[in-house]
Amino acid sequence: MADMRTNLAWFQLPNPILTASGCAASGKELDQFFDVSDLGAVVTKSIMLQPRSGRPTPRMAETPSGMLNSIGLQGPGIDAFIADDLAWLAKHGARTVVSIAGGHTDEYVELAHKLRGHSAVSMIEVNISCPNVESRGQVFACDAIASSRVIGAVRRAADPAVPVFAKLSPDVTDIVHIARACADAGADGFSLINTLLGMVIDTDTMAPALGGVTGGLSGPAIRPVAVRCVWQVRHAIPHLPILGMGGIRTGLDALQFILAGASAVSVGTTVFGDPTAPMRILRELEQALDERGFATLTEAVGRAHHSAAYRYMPAAAEASAG
Ligand SMILES: Cc1cc2nc3c(=O)[nH]c(=O)nc-3n(C[C@H](O)[C@H](O)[C@H](O)COP(=O)(O)O)c2cc1C
After folding, report:
1. Is the Cβ atom of 132 under 6 angstroms away from ligand 1?
2. Which of 36, 137, 177, 219: disulfide with 27, CB 3.0–4.6 Å?
3. Does ligand 1 come within 6 angstroms of the Cβ of 44?
4. Which residues of the chain fall short of a pLDDT of 70?
């Protein structure tokens, strides 16, 4: 069977299957289904400085091939997270990617400081799909300057031994522009992608289905968008690793992300319906690589870019949208 070991910058993982932030809390719930230390890593729900109760209910709506959520950044705050969740993950031998979120740059910096020196933290994922309170609520990830400020500040504040990944939003005209700004600011890699902003209207009440009005669309519906983002960022910035995600349900879905240039993938929405999915996807991916003659996972990373039959030109690809 193929060697499934991979790296996210200098973080070494035994396999490329991670959970997605917000879709498996801090991993405790998954432990009844499989050993969380068998995952490449657990990615925790984005944590903020203070405890938060999230957005108004209802906070979930179904869509034809995905889910719309407006959970918001509900959580216990960083101190309780470190004392309880991080301690639990360390005790269970889980490699841990801590996702952090804030309303202004200083908040991200304080979070990064608080995580310094905790050996259980293998990597930091910076969720910048949050409203910037200093910029009339404009989402950091939709603005290259705001994104680079946060990523640069977190990189300087975080433990130098811990890679810092920028988690980008697909809700931008040019994701490569944002990715380049984050790379220039010192990002060690990218997590691609966060949810797409969406909305459902309940035709009985004739009102928005979600209490928060808009929400994040996830699941299979967004997979082609996610694969496209991974492809574009890999093409433009091939030296930085990518953690890919968006609608992964099977090993072949995961393989698409790997071939597009992701070194590892996160499984999110699928876990709500099938908590054992990450382990199944790992087995399926292993088999798919084997069937295609790959001795190692890393040989497959970005393989679709090598196709001699196809020359990718970003401008032409965008034009073809019409
Ligand atoms: C219920 C829910 C909560 C989420 N919470 C977070 C979060 O706290 N931080 C974050 O960066 N992404 C969050 N996400 C986004 C996921 O991590 C992931 O990027 C996205 O859902 C795409 O993957 P998927 O289609 O496999 O779910 C959340 C997604 C869902 C469905």
Report:
1. no
2. 36
3. no
4. 308-322
